[in-house]
């Protein structure tokens, strides 16, 4: 009959250290990932006052940018941003691009319905950002284009203009 050898203490120390490292590293990755996701859902209102020559009265402009509507930012977040903007009662609203995440579909009726609520006496204006072009199927960095990217952009532009 053969008697098994006693466990090697050095081997056990290595395995314990490896297990702790893996668990600690996994926890760190989970924490950092959740911190990044939490940042995506937070927004703030900052106010800046500047003197602009030629104005007869103060002007309030609201600037929303980088909404990144898509897999991680949903309609509830956009609704909160729109409500915060409307509460400021701005004279002018500007959308600075990247309304869509690259992976969002250009026909996002929910996003457009929320943005359509933005009203200001001097209007609401928007420009496309690189992520918006990516959602149309045109990667402006690599130059890769889907054959229908211009049509998709045109449909979204028309849908964006309808509500004003």
How far from one another are the termini? 89 Å
Unreliable stretches, pLDDT < 50, 5 or more residues?
34-39
Relative strand content: 5-15%
Number of strands: 3
Mean pLDDT: 77
Assign a percent range to the helix content. Answer: 40-55%
Instruction: Give the helix tally.
Output: 5
How would you sum up the global shape?
Answer: elongated
- Main sheet overview: 3 strands, parallel
Class from helix and strand fractions: mainly alpha
Q: What is the C-alpha radius of gyration, as a whole number of Å? A: 25 Å
Explained architecture:
This protein has helices at residues 9-41, 75-87, 109-115, 130-136, 149-161; strands at 61-64, 92-95, 124-126. The chain has 164 residues and is mainly alpha-helical. A three-stranded parallel sheet has the order 1-2-3, with no helix packed on it. Helix 2 (75-87) links the parallel strand 1 (61-64) and strand 2. The longest helix is centred in the N-terminal third of the chain and has 33 residues, at 9-41.
Secondary-structure topology with pairs:
Layout lengths: L8 H33 L19 E4 L10 H13 L4 E4 L13 H7 L8 E3 L3 H7 L12 H13 L3
Parallel strand pairs: 1-2, 2-3
Helix pairs in contact: 2-3
């Amino acid at each position: 009959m053969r008697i098994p050898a006693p466990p090697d203490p050095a081997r056990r120390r290595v395995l314990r250290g490896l297990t702790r490292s893996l668990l600690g590293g996994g926890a760190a990755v989970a924490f950092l990932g959740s911190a990044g996701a939490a940042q995506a859902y937070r927004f703030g209102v900052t106010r800046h006052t500047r003197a602009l020559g030629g104005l007869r009265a103060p002007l309030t402009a609201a600037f929303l940018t980088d909404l990144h509507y898509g897999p991680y930012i949903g309609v509830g977040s956009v609704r909160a941003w729109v409500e915060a903007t409307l509460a400021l009662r701005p004279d002018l609203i500007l959308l600075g691009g990247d309304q869509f995440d690259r992976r969002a579909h250009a026909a996002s009726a929910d996003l457009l319905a929320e943005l359509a609520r933005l009203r200001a006496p001097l209007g609401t204006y928007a420009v496309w950002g690189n992520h918006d072009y990516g959602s149309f199927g045109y990667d402006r960095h690599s130059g890769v284009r889907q054959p229908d990217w211009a049509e998709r952009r045109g449909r979204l532009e028309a849908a964006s203009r309808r509500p004003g």
